[in-house]
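User: Could you check the structure of this?
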Amino acid sequence: MNAAKSKGIKSAKPADTALKSMAKPVNPSAKSKPAAKVPAKPALKSVKAAAKSVAKSVKPAVEAVQAMAAEALRPDKPKKMKRKAYEAEMRKLHEELVALQQWVVHKKMRVIVVFEGRDGAGKGGVIKSIMERVSPRIFRVVALPSPTEREKSQIYMQRYIQHFPAAGEIVIFDRSWYNRAGVERVMGFCTDEQAESFLKGVPLFERAMVDGGIILLKYWLEVSEDEQTKRLKDRIDDGRKIWKLSPMDLKSYSRWYDYSRARDAMFRATDNGFAPWFVANNDDVRRGRLNIISHLLAHVPHKKLPREKIKLPKRQKAHGYVEVDHDFKYIEEKF
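Assistant: Sure, the predicted structure tokens are below.
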């Protein structure tokens, strides 16, 4: 202990003194001081606000993924068609389209095929598939732009009649006189009175076409809201498809139910026995194209004409011909 004191180390309190201090009675009348409030940290508030904002922005994406999953797992939904199977079926249909083409020319038939439907429903893809292996001189595609001032002064059907087929021709209308019942009515390019007058008159017009010997097929391509959104977004993001996105598509996109009402009124007035509407669900473009082309072939009577055996003739001999010595300007071979 003396050594400890010499080094300046204080001695500890005795144990009994420490216990007495701990056992000191508490005054019940004494008021305890309230605990000091800890102010909320600004950082914590900002973190909570950010979390709410993120949750709000993520919710639509989560709901969209859930909807896609539910659609994909639907028990009655057919599996997506593999490309190899699609191309094999399309090859068969292309061969039959060529046979139809030859029969139409042989019998001097006149055929009109009308394609209507919602924006992004796949009309262009179906038409491209039809035209891929046939002659553009026999199968003609008519896709008219907005009418000129002169055309606006004409009878409404006049600009379409001039494109009707002659003997041995098939004309495909990529949108048609039914613009008046659809886009013109919805977007205000004609009055309701003009649209109603059109719907009353067009069955008489089509009756005259059919009675005159024209085979008339009318197709409406339907697509779901989600699939339409996906396809229009794809046009925005894909530089190869941006030309398909017109200002009218953007204006029309928000008016889904106005177009539904216009479509329903059109069907009520113009879906009849001599010129019915055929509706195709085209959410799955591969199946849709195959189904539509198969239907078209089944509704235009035709037979496969016998074909003579073809043999290439012999080439002529050169008889002294020498390749010309000329500085040809060949294109650069980058590939």
